[in-house]
Amino acid sequence: MIQTLEDMIRRFCAYGLEFKDADGCTHYWCTLKSALELAYKTSIHASTGKTPAMLEKGWNPKLSVDNLKKDLVDIHPAA
């Protein structure tokens, strides 16, 4: 886990302490810590076949993309 998080942070730090997104907005890499943690905790790991959140808490956090998928099915059942 520590190696994975280290790799994720290193990729952001490679651009310096701040970077610009596609819209030209400046961000500091440390502001992405929560997003990196969520990405890690909700990713299925090959060794366990489960997410760290599921193993730690017994449930996966709801993501906005999950709500989006539900809304799409409600709008158009073939989605």
Automatic annotation (TrEMBL):
<dbReference type="InterPro" id="IPR036397">
    <property type="entry name" value="RNaseH_sf"/>
</dbReference>
<protein>
    <submittedName>
        <fullName>Uncharacterized protein</fullName>
    </submittedName>
</protein>
<dbReference type="GO" id="GO:0003676">
    <property type="term" value="F:nucleic acid binding"/>
</dbReference>
